[in-house]
Specification:
The chain contains seven helices and ten strands. With 226 residues, it is of the alpha/beta class. The mean pLDDT is 95. It has a domain of 70 residues. Helix 3 packs parallel to helix 5 and helix 5 packs parallel to helix 6. The strands form two sheets. It has a six-stranded mixed β-sheet, with helices on both faces. The protein has a four-stranded antiparallel β-sheet with strand order 2-1-4-5. Bound molecules: adenosine-5'-triphosphate (ATP). Adenosine-5'-triphosphate (ATP) binds next to strand 2 and helix 1. One of its GO terms (molecular function) is ATP binding. Keywords: ATP-binding, Nucleotide-binding, Transport. Belongs to the ABC transporter superfamily.
């Protein structure tokens, strides 16, 4: 799916969080790096319409995130920095099923899709567990299942391995590597992005580099050492 930014700009009052950005993203694995406050989350939130451009446009699969807001948002799933906060219902299977409400599906169809996505991520045994009692790795997998059950084409993950131990980092890295969906990952965990197709580096609200992982990460290290 093509994600197209055309002079997309975001200002919060007088502060420009994202300078005019013109860019087309079509790769399956896209990484985004940059120092804190460099505009990464703002750029990602433009894609699913959570943030609207103050100037310029953003389209996903040809749908404008402002003019075609609902259809555009349906193309993208978003896992936030603290995924436990995006779980609405107390039991994991109920939270996953909640995302399928209002889709004219029967109870049996919702149960079938919920079981299938739990099984896809190897977490069927967590179906009846309380979401706030899940470990960090289990929470990430549960949130990914909750988001992907609705069938978005693109999954955006904001720092998915933050706060995870080495074992769970590995688990989430392998899970992301195995996803058939297009993926855009914001990460300070540079190892996660090593095999990606393309890595963007943001600096002070501007796209500072757009390259292969090794070149982009070298550029980022350079910026970070200034
Ligand atoms: N809702 C908001 N209101 C005002 N300013 C904001 C808002 N959201 C972000 N900003 C500002 O915009 C700039 C970019 O923030 P953004 O969250 O996009 O950065 P980031 O690169 O994702 O940072 P981090 O790595 O810390 O998550 C920062 O200066 C931030 O303070």
């Amino acid at each position: 799916m093509d994600i197209v930014f055309t002079a997309a700009t975001v200002a919060y009052g007088a502060r420009i969080a994202l300078q005019p950005l013109t860019l087309t993203l079509s790769e399956r694995r896209i990484g985004v790096v940059g120092l804190n406050g460099s505009g990464k989350t703002t750029m990602a939130r433009l894609i699913n319409g959570l943030v609207k451009p103050t100037a310029g446009t953003v389209t996903v699969d040809g749908l404008d995130t402002v003019a075609d807001e609902a259809a555009a948002r349906g193309k993208t799933g978003f896992i936030f920095q603290n995924p436990q906060h995006q779980m609405i219902l107390p039991i994991l299977a109920e939270d996953i099923a909640f995302g399928l409400k209002n889709r004219k599906l029967s109870k049996a169809e919702i149960a079938g899709k919920t079981d299938a996505i739990l099984s896809r991520f190897g977490i069927s045994h967590l179906a009846r567990r309380r979401v706030h009692e899940l470990s960090g790795g289990e929470t990430q997998l549960g949130a990914i299942a909750s988001v992907l059950v609705t069938g978005p084409d693109l999954l955006i993950l904001d720092e998915p391995t933050n706060q995870l131990d080495l074992k769970n980092r590995g688990l989430i890295e392998r899970t992301i590597a195995g996803l058939p969906e297009q993926v855009l990952v914001i990460s300070h965990d540079l190892a996660l992005l090593e095999d990606f197709d393309r890595v963007l580096v943001f600096h002070e609200g501007r796209l500072a580099a757009d390259d292969t992982p090794s070149n982009a990460i070298a550029a980022y290290r350079n910026l970070a050492s200034c």
